[in-house]
Amino acid sequence: QVQLVESGGEVKQPGASVKISCKASGYHFSSYGIGWVRQAPGQGLEWMGWISGYNGNTNNVEKFQDRVTMTIDTSTSTAHMELRSLRSDDTALYYCARVVRGDQLYSVYYYMDFWGKGTTVTVSS
Amino acid sequence: DIQMTQSPSSLSASVGDRVTITCRASQGIKNYVSWYQQKPGEAPQLLIYAASTLKSGVPSRFSGGGSGTEFTLTISGLQPEDFATYYCHRYDSGPWTFGQGTKVEFK
After folding, report:
1. I need a labelling partner for B6 at 20 to 30 A (CA). Which of A39, A113, B29, B71 fits?
2. Low-confidence residues of chain B, pLDDT below 70?
């Protein structure tokens, strides 16, 4: 069965970096993308971006453009998301999700059908 | 960037009610919208994609509609397990974004 498992929670100081991994299993990794979504305590979902499992192309939100690097390792079916220059407002639960791309008549669609349980990143001095 | 405005932010309803949640885009985005349900302590779950296509296995009381700038998620006959927070998500050519969320609470 499809599973996405994020790495363990982290506590970081402001200004530091964090690298979260997302280990995928149960499907052909290169046929799907991996999206990253975060959720601050008590807040809504925030889309960060996604990476193609096929060619590693990324599509990130401009807000994170300078601080985020998304990569994949197809040999281990793992995606990574590094967030740099951490601030207190980066404290959140970080999810990875499988991104599906499909075609309908005259249009394309995307959705996230399987999600990890999320991993907590706490930024505090 | 295209803004996505979801309303209401919360609503109170009873079992059996019909509930409609709306997302409005600041520019036309065809049918590039999906809807997710999130229960406390859980990851989101996909309900609908391409504005109106129900994910396999999702109860038929959920339906989506709209295109262009206005999109709706309707729950026809609210069930106890439907009390949750719902998010729209746009995935057009610009930066993808979620709506602000709608919390459906028990009246």
Report:
1. A113
2. none
